[in-house]
Specification:
With 263 residues, the chain is of the alpha+beta class. It is built from 5 helices and 11 strands; from the N terminus they run H-E-E-E-H-E-H-E-E-E-E-H-E-H-E-E. The strands form 2 sheets. Strands 6-10-9-8-7-11 form a 6-stranded antiparallel sheet. Strands 1-5-4-3-2 form a 5-stranded antiparallel sheet.
Amino acid sequence: ACAQVAQSWLQLDRALPSYLWPCLLLIEEVPYCMGNSICTDPALKDPTIAPEIEVSDKIEVQLERQPGQALGLDLDFLDGKTARVVEVQAEGAVPASNLGRADWENVKAGDHIISVNGVRGDQPQFRRILAKENKLHLVLQRPVEFSVSVRKGDGLGIDMTNAAQGSNLMINSVKSKGAINDWNSVAESSAVAIKIFDRIVEVNGVRGNWETLLATMKESEELNLIISPAPIPKKQQRTISEVLVDEAIEPAVPEATNVTEEN
């Protein structure tokens, strides 16, 4: 079983392969092996099935593009530290690379690039490397969305910003009074508490550009919000038992086109 294999790797003090990470959760349960050939149950070998892990998953992509070839991504840099994928274009190095991987490993809209060629948290360097380097090692984090239901009352009590062509509203601050702070005070865990740099990606079943989201938010008293959480800090990545999101990535001054306040 892959749980035994994972234990053996750990006992040898060797770096655990990514396909064995889910087994840490399942040491005493039926293993899920993500295509590991050692598994005995054929149903557990399908590499196209994403692992059932309750954390923001980390995906690594190696690219070697032709000189002059576009990256093939529309990105926003609102949080000051990462690059969020707004759209994967039809052509470019990344969409071409996607064709050779399982669907869950593909770069997708909503993913955050958290490291480029080993550089982390430095957006000017991100931009330079993405624009000029042909060999790229991208580390991405895929947020696990969650749902929040609130009644606006006297206001949500948040400040929001957005990219010009963005499909979300990023939270800049959560005030001490308002519906969102009230939600946070009774949230079952920090994993579903709303914090700065989280993104509102859906309002009452509606997705679209930031203007559509904002208009839907303003016209309704009862709100069901789908939240795409901010990337979790490096020291908390790959936590299997729970998502620890008490410490947000500190941003530089966000590069934004609009700031909206919800009192």
